[in-house]
Amino acid sequence: MLPQMSILVDANEAVASVAHRVSEVIAIYPITPASSMAEWCDEWSVAGKKNLWGQIPRVEQLQSEAGAAGTVHGALQAGSLSTTFTASQGLLLMIPNMYKIAGELTAFTMHVAARTLATHALSIFGDHSDVMACRQTGMALLCSSSVQEAQDLAAIAHAASLESRIPFLHFFDGFRTSHEVHRIEGLSDEVLRSLLDEQAIAAHRARALSPEHPVIRGTAHNPDTFFQAREAANPFYDACPRIVEQVMERFAKLTGRRYKLFDYHGDPQAERVLVLMGSGAEAARETVDWLVARGEKVGVLVVRLYRPFDGLGFLAALPKSTKTLAVLDRTKEPGAPCEPLHLDVLATLFEAHKQLRVVGGRYGLSSKEFTPAMVKSVFDEIAKPDPRNHFTVGIVDDVTRLSLEWDAELDIEAADVTRAVFYGLGSDGTVGANKNTIKIVGEETELVTQGYFVYDSKKSGSTTVSHLRFSPRPIRSTYLINKAGFVAVSQPGLVERIDVLELAAPGAVFLLNTPRSAAEVFESLPEDVARTIVERKLRFYVIDAHKVSTDVGLPGRVSTVMQGCFFALSGVLPREQAFAAARRAIEKTFKRRGAEVVKRNIDALELAEARMAAVPVPAELPTRRRAEAVPAAAPEFVKRVSAAMIAGHGNRLPVSAFPPDGTWPSATAQWEKRSIAREIPDWDPKICIQCNKCALVCPHAAIRAKLCAPEALANAPASFQTTEWKAGGDPHPRYALQVAPDDCTGCGLCVAICPAKDKSNPRHKAIDMAPADEKREAERVHWSFFEALPEAPREEQKLDVKHVQLLQPLFEFSGACSGCGETPYLKLASQLFGDRMLIANATGCSSIYGGNQPTTPWSVNKQGRGPAWANSLFEDNAEFGLGFRFSLDQSQDRARMLLAACAGSLPEELVRGLVEADQSSEAGIAAQRARVVELRKQLARSKTREARQLETFAEHLVRRSVWIIGGDGWAYDIGFGGLDHLFSSGADVNVLVLDTEVYSNTGGQQSKATPIGATAKFAAAGRSTGKKDLGLIAMSYGHVYVASVALYARDAQVIKAFTEAESYPGPSLIIAHSPCIAHGYDLSKSPEQQKLAVESGVWPVYRFDPRRLDTGELPLAVDSGPIKARVADYMKNEGRFQAVALRDPARYAELVALEERHIAERQAFHEQLAGLKLKSAVAQGAPL
Amino acid sequence: MSLDLSTRYLGLELAHPLVAGAGPLSTSLSQIRSLEDGGAAAIVLRSLFEEQITGQQLGAARHLYGHAESSEATSWFPDTDVFALGPEEYLELVRGARAAVKVPVIASLNGTTPGGWVHYARLMEEAGASAVELNLYDVPTDAEADATAVERRQLELVRDVRAAISVPLAVKLSPFYSSLPAFVRALEHAGANGVVLFNRFYQPDIDLEALDLQRTLRLSDSSELPLRLRWLAVLSPQTKLSLAASGGVHGGRDALKVLMAGAHAVQMVSALLQHGPKRLRLVLAEMREWLEEHEYESITTLRGSMNLARCPDPAHYERGNYMALLSSWQEAGAHGRA
Predict the structure, then answer these.
(1) Is residue A416 part of a domain?
(2) For the purposes of burial, counting CB atoms within 10 Å of the CB of A868, is it exposed (0-12), middle (13-18) or buried (19 or more)?
(3) Per-residue pLDDT averaged across A290-317, rounded?
(4) Which CATH code fits B7-307?
């Protein structure tokens, strides 16, 4: 056995470490939850880390998973050892190549963090639906159940593939395993070297394509030969299980850790056996031990090598005493007789003439919890004389009644396991500090440590819950903590929003960050929290962590303070040892951030304990009840379903609560009052110049303007502010500007853009930020009154910056990041066209803040109209939206046909009006809607079949606006092929690219929109090739309307571009500059920074309108204005560029010069294009 | 007999008094080489700003790594071990400069915290700096902090740095002290080896249209010279410290004047920014021409010849200068009105 080293990693890091060391070419594409495997590999290669053969592996990001698979296939054919990482839809995109790679018997291993496939909804979480869609490809499927196994089986897969020539798909559960931080035994280079067969590697290389000994592969066969040739591979599959066993045996000799194709665990005389694979097997093992100790004859059979399925091996592993099997699948195959593993077990038993009772069940879809209570419930079920088959466990199915019941209170964990739960915000560093804590405890003690982190799906104000375990024995608890001895809450507001003591065990420590002192905190608590503290005899402590973090100069980063308190209170380590280790850990973690960051964190740690105080239980408990999750005025569905999800109780909702087809109501974000801003805008009407720019830039539609008649203010709250509307009207209406105090995220963009300063005190503007705690109550009353004021009539609005903001936004209160640069464009589009929009939304940030339940920001107006929104996939959004257009065109055509058929019984003027309607303006659309109402009235009198059909199609007589929306990852990379086809199609659709110049949603990977000089994942040294000119590509078609826009810098141009694009009767493309947190600067400065982008030429602003050719005008209008700023001045303000400058100033200087040149060239090109004269025949409308 | 232009500044032997002052022209090794090629007798490197380092560290930590984590993204930037933030880049510049040029290399430090001053000064010495120039750039805005307190803090700082390093130590001052001679004497006691007169505050301007402040960087011109001349002349007879002028020297005649007022070295920045490092040779040639024409043998003969102790009419450096100018202006004004 070779020496080993204990390491603290999650499975993604552990697996990547193996894959990086045994590969030469790594082709990847980011997808949750697999991205970090590729990111690790990239970072290691950038840092010069070498593989086993002393070479730095080449890591390349492709334009899609299909591209990554193709590249891997090519690298393998050319003789390299190659790998890739993926999940979910990404894996599906690789399937065609997987067939090829397997068909060619190619040694290759890929690693999959198994994730749910999008069906009725997308889910980033874990189950086996993706890998189960690959079981027919011919690749071997090897499954790991834990972090340790993921590392070990990764190595075994690489070795076995080389020897068997069967390509391996090694998988483990997304999030539960991929993201669980666990102390494991690491694998040394020596182990890996000993495990891999050099001869097999040589053989792999010898099979490579080479002009020195040429062969051809990828041939085409006819019926005469294909079948036989396909069968020729059988011996390799037959041999594969034995080879895997041999490699596992070798591995055991090297490491002492022994794996089998099928591992049985439990009573050797078990009568009831569970069969499953993945992380659930760990919880099952833990439960089996507990049940066996209580005399039950049970066991669990863990499947590791799922393909090729070794039936004999399976039978051999099963105790002879087995009477009943329950086979659990973490996937769903609707319509199939059984789920896949269940079916395979049945087939195996049937072919072996084994008469066992076998039932199957589904569990754990989309990382649904799978706990010992659920395992026990399955064992209990199969102990019954007539157990249920095809059951589900972990949910309440009150529709088809398939679900088993379980005892939610069952807790089988031993008392000596320390269990701690931390509630925090994504932005306060709680998760990072907890990872540090695990590391410290792991390094300082012999305890096994485990950390698992749960996030909600909001991008601003998101909540995190960290689950930490420390145990003297191996931890197999692959489920969330349900009885914690330590509960910490790092944000005082969370106590109001979620049941933070739900998991607190009796006698637990409860630590709360609050500005209130120990003497006064109790009375401020909601009644249920206070009662729980008393009833469960919790030891309650408070700390003002915000004050401590501010005092040490790290405002907002409360996590180190909370960590200090944890070490002082939990006793998991002796106090002195804990603090010394914590200081060392801080030094190690923050060293590369600089000495000052280290110092301030250590200060925070040390101040924590001194400032913490124990809270005495008062004689009288508070009686204030926590506010309901949604207001009483919310619709019934929101109160019944969304509210439970908002409160963190979505797990409790039964099947019947849900729409069966993924259809959800819109306009629900308004009911989710998150109150996350610490400061909200404060309006001073005396200074305000009524430009409405604040409303224009607000990413969350949380500041709005309305006009109303003075009479409408009769019942206004006394403190409600209005002022005379200066832009006219007779009589002058009153102007109100109002913040939605519970929906504002406090980004400060409104203040940054506000041009109106107090002349005697220019620090004071018409909008200033004010402490939310002081303003919120009053503003709630104001908002409620403001909401009820009538919305502006659409038909009469001028379409300029000021007036457009009087229109009701139909995109509001999203969970996007505070200061998001994308959402103001969506809001603007919703104001301009929302009541007739169909939106195809590519997967990415905009589909998450747009469609991740519990609520959606897409809204409706008083008439019930609003954007109809759908997300298909990441890669197909252009095609998806084209489908909308084709369908709408067909429907409109059908409506016109039917109208013609019914014309005889309809007033002639109405028919003519409907057919010839000018719908180019809001007034025209309103008139057409009125005609449709009249048409329906007329049709109601008719009894013909055509009349009935026309009633169905009549709504299509009103013009609809198709919008195809996505980020640069979609438009420039994965969806570009489809987008290009869309341009070519000539279809009347509008494409809005929210260009953040990086994959924002998956965490900042480079795209082809990433500019020169920017650091991004997979471009850690700073990107050296220029941003793709997507606009130019579209312009080259000649018939595509193209605009490049920047809202903060050129707002009037944006509105012009949106209206022109929408009115253009062909494809339109708008590329929108969208500041993003991935740019690395304070987004409240984004208006200034965007201005610099435009003035330096970094972001050109233009409109290319093919219609202008018809009138003899020049089609391209460059709206940027003259170059007034330096590219270098723009670049110096953003962290993504400065990261390169700080690390490698010489390279940075080169990249700045390169970017300057790139921009100068592009500008020269645009200028020439803008002056391009076309021959008169062309200008007069001849085809281009 | 040949003309001896050599001088001794901070105990360093310089071939002549013209020194490239701290500024943007000494940020890279190639620039530093061209300063030597241009004729600088010593080079003061651009300043290391403590708050810039701290700001970069905190800024990078906050903006690159401080954003909300989500289940899909626990970070937005690659996080590699080679990512270094701190004074390393500056110290590398010091090391590189020492290896690249033969003339003395003086590191310049602009600190904000007592610990920071000492820490960075020590690092500069370790990196090989021939001397350290402390820039006491401090704008007192707090009415609670009186002059004594401000000066005491600055002197403590100089003492601390002195105790931490063994290479020569210069202190660059602003002109705004109630008694500059007394403060310079105190600096001498605190262990300074020289003073540089004066640093130039970057003073913001007001943007009338935007009702905002504008950051401006105005280069010096010769009109700033008389302020330096006066204080050099005042200090020269009263201190043993090395004196250097900074700000306002654009030509040979300017340089001669500051030497006559008592300077041991003449720092130039703006003129080099405007005309390039070769300007040094031109200034030196002008000096040489004038000195030869006037039959001076060495800089030593010239130095301090016009200081407060030796100039023909010291009243001009004192209040009399003010009175005379004021009265002449009134006379001119009176004529103007008539």
Answers:
(1) no
(2) middle
(3) 98
(4) 3.20.20.70
Helix (H) or strand (E) holding A967: strand A961-967
Average pLDDT over residues A889-913: 97
Q: What's the Cα-to-Cα distance from A908 to each of A280, A401, A915, A944, rounded to whole Å?
A: 69, 57, 11, 18
Q: How many domains does chain A have?
A: 6
Q: Are residues A949 and A1097 in the same domain?
A: yes
At B115-155, the pLDDT tens digits run 788 889 999 999 999 999 999 877 788 898 898 999 999 99
Beta strands in chain B (DSSP E): 7-9, 12-14, 18-20, 42-49, 105-110, 131-135, 169-173, 194-197, 205-207, 212-214, 242-246, 265-268
β-sheet bridge partners, residue A965 = A841, A992
* Chain B interface test: which of A40, A458, A490, A597 (most B C-beta within 10 Å): A597
Same domain? For A564 and A691 the reply is: no
Q: Which of A760, A791, A822 is the last residue of a domain?
A: A791
Q: What's the complex ipTM?
A: 0.80
Q: What is the bridge-based pairing of β-strands B105-110 and B42-49? A: parallel
A1059 touching B, CB under 8 A? no
Note whether A197 and A307 are same-domain residues: no
Residues 435-454 of A with CB under 8 A from B: 454
Has residue A424 been placed in a domain?
Answer: no
A751 shares contact with chain B (CB less than 8 Å): no
CB of A117 closer than 8 Å to CB of A92: yes
> Does residue A591 share a domain with residue A475?
yes
pLDDT at A912 over 50: yes
A1113 and A986 fall within a common domain: yes
Higher pLDDT, A591 or A932: A932
For chain B, which residues score pLDDT lower than 50? Answer: 81-84, 329-338
Please identify which of the residues A84, A449, A692, A1001 carries the catalytic annotation.
A1001
First-to-final CA distance of chain A: 74
| Strand partners of residue A511 | A488, A541
Beta bridge partners of A463: A425
| Amino acid at site B78 | P
CATH of the domain at A883: 3.40.50.970
Domain stops at, among A393, A422, A456: A393
Q: Calculate how close chain B gets to A895, using CA atoms only, in Å.
A: 45
Would you say residue A411 lies in a domain? Answer: no
A46 inside domain = yes
* List A21, A115, A419, A836, catalytic entry: A115
Return mean pLDDT, chain A.
95
Catalytic residue among A32, A97, A392, A482: A32
* Three-class secondary structure of residue A508 per DSSP: strand
β-strand partners of B170: B133, B194
Judgement on whether residues A973 and A1095 belong to the same structural domain of the protein: yes
- Kindly report the CATH number assigned to the domain that includes residue A370: 3.40.50.920
- State how far the alpha carbon of A1183 is from the alpha carbons of A216, A355, B117, in Å: 46, 75, 73
In CATH, what number is assigned to the domain containing residue A531? 3.40.920.10
pLDDT tens sequence across A579-629: 898 898 888 888 777 778 888 889 999 899 999 999 999 989 999 998 899
**What tokens were used for A729?**
């009207």
Q: Are B288 and B2 in contact (CB under 8 A)?
A: no
Close Cβ partners of A311 (under 8 Å, ≥ 6 residues apart): A347, A348, A351, A352
Q: What is the pTM of this model?
A: 0.91
Count CB neighbours of B218 within 10 A.
Answer: 10
Looking at the structure, do residues A240 and A280 belong to the same domain, yes or no? no
Range A862-871 average pLDDT: 97
Q: Dig out the tokens for A218 from the structure.
A: 């990828």
Instruction: Indicate if A328 and A357 belong to the same structural domain.
Output: yes
Is the confidence at residue A1184, as pLDDT, over 50?
no
Token digits for B323?
A: 């009175």
First-to-last alpha carbon distance for chain B, in angstroms, is 57
Identify the pLDDT of residue A1177.
46
Radius of gyration of chain B (CA): 22
Range of the domain at A772: 675-791
